[in-house]
Amino acid sequence: MTKIRLNDTTLRDGSHAVRHQYTEEQVRKVVRALDDAGVEMMEVSHGDGLGGSTFNYGFSKTNEMDLISAAVDEAKNTKIAFLCLPGVGSAEDMEEATKRGARACRIATHSTEADVSIQHFEKARELGLETGGFLMLSHRLDPAGLAKQARIMVDAGCQCVFVVDSAGYLIGQEAADRVKAVYEEIGGEAQVGFHGHQNLGFGVANSLLAVQNGATQIDGTLYGLGAGAGNAPIEVLATVFERRGIDFGDVNVKAVQDAAEDVLKPMVSRLPMMDRGSIVQGQVGVYNSFLLHAERASERYGVPAQEILAEVGRRGYVGGQEDMIIEVALALQGQN
Amino acid sequence: MTKIRLNDTTLRDGSHAVRHQYTEEQVRKVVRALDDAGVEMMEVSHGDGLGGSTFNYGFSKTNEMDLISAAVDEAKNTKIAFLCLPGVGSAEDMEEATKRGARACRIATHSTEADVSIQHFEKARELGLETGGFLMLSHRLDPAGLAKQARIMVDAGCQCVFVVDSAGYLIGQEAADRVKAVYEEIGGEAQVGFHGHQNLGFGVANSLLAVQNGATQIDGTLYGLGAGAGNAPIEVLATVFERRGIDFGDVNVKAVQDAAEDVLKPMVSRLPMMDRGSIVQGQVGVYNSFLLHAERASERYGVPAQEILAEVGRRGYVGGQEDMIIEVALALQGQN
């Protein structure tokens, strides 16, 4: 049986849910707990990847390079990874993160724009990093189109292409078909991964389907902490995979459950949930990290967040267009 | 295409999550919102069904018959149902609920004990009620065994047998196989229903699979309010079913989303979630309404709730054995 790797992205995707306010001590606690639990890879960066600490995406409380250093210092076995979006994170950022001890990277692009990742993969290979590629908002392409984009990443040096359901939009078969198509295109040459969100309640179910359709890397976060309705909770993934007899290495299920409850939960004041805003994101396919931006705009401009998100969906905005949220709020305000 | 009926059980299964403290005004608000949204059936009773307001199950704040009356008074189109567990609710309770205006009932037994429901179905038909049958903890039987129990209910006069995943234990295919087997046994004579919980994150996914395997009644609750990790959220079910082109009558998806956010959420201080206790329930198959009982015993006896629940799972207790939770806590306390 193929071995599956459970990746934890509490300290990257989860960063959205805490508005990028992680402290070094929090990062150390999470790494210690999951390293002890046998989790083999953990991603640490600003929620929007290296260089994300900006006015547009929201400023980090702590320099992400210091968080990476802390994570590397704390990790005994787990590999520390970072996320990088071309146009946000630079080659210099990648060098610095590698200098701090990161050993894997994930290069993320909108699902139709894999070609902008080519130089970053070259850089990553030059730095000796394990490479992953994120095809974000992957519901925007049909399975065949997504497979073509995956091919571009693999040809550039990507070792695992992730079908990333950034809006929690995919429902069961819609996720399975995409994973299968990507697997058929790149399987044998590179791995396939899946990164699920909970907006329509399919984070865990889609992850299981992904494994059944060829994925060998699955992302999760403690308590599902993450953008929008949150990610597939890693403690639930571990519990489900164990029941289904899936080999996911030496991860201790109970230790992961305990890490969620005893380590992560006490540090977070607001856990993500399937609330109206995030359900609408899943319904119309809006990038999950827009949720808190839309809520802030809602407070400021007196327009319901779910209406802002629905309009953002109609306009088809993608990651990087956070600044347009305010424009949408203003336009809706004008209509009311 | 077959029409699916979405049933709401916020005011019955959801009652567990508020420790049976619903007021008449709260019931009216929820019924008004979901009646306006086009939901065709709503269940109103103590969480453990008629007569559940006891020391063993927890006392209701308001007499459930008065809650049923209020719901009936408020409902313009939606049919008000009640739950009844043989041995807890009596024939007299059923008569009284019918007198108050309830027009449907659901008779619930442990999955292996459908035969104890026979007299209750006879009574229900005599009272002119629509009938549903709940096979609780349905993971405890294989599909073929469950189908045999469903047959007993149908022969007694049950019009819809529900595969009830009372522990949120079932994972995808495990739910689909049970619905399919029940459908093959009773389809054409009676309907099949599915009642999902979220413990392992499969409440919505299993409900969709249930529809794809013959179920025509699906239970949900606003915001997933319910025992354990909560139920499949009805606003998410509606959103997902709409995308999949499923006919679920004239239910207005946006109105259900709004009811969850604007009506239900403000009245609840603690929403159910996939926390450690409820994940363990799904992992080992413990009746969901045991969660708050175990948490109370945990506080009183100083034993972790998840350990109590795991031991309850090992001992195989079923609904009605709430009093044994304290015994388990005492036994674990003795070991520490």
From TrEMBL, chains A, B:
The record marks 12 as: Transition state stabilizer. Its EC number is 4.1.3.39. One of its GO terms (molecular function) is 2-isopropylmalate synthase activity. It catalyses: (S)-4-hydroxy-2-oxohexanoate = propanal + pyruvate; (S)-4-hydroxy-2-oxopentanoate = acetaldehyde + pyruvate. Mn(2+) binds at residues 13, 195, 197. CDD domains: DRE_TIM_HOA (cd07943). One of its GO terms (biological process) is L-leucine biosynthetic process. Keywords: Aromatic hydrocarbons catabolism, Lyase, Manganese, Metal-binding. Signal peptide: none annotated. InterPro entries: 2-IPM_HCS-like (IPR050073), 4OH_2_O-val_aldolase (IPR017629), Aldolase_TIM (IPR013785), DmpG_comm (IPR012425), DRE_TIM_HOA (IPR035685), PYR_CT (IPR000891). Coiled coil: none annotated. Substrate binds at residues 12-13, 166, 195, 287. NCBIfam families: 4OH_2_O_val_ald, PRK08195.1. Belongs to the 4-hydroxy-2-oxovalerate aldolase family. This is 4-hydroxy-2-oxovalerate aldolase. It comes from Corynebacterium endometrii. The lineage of its organism: Bacteria, Bacillati, Actinomycetota, Actinomycetes, Mycobacteriales.
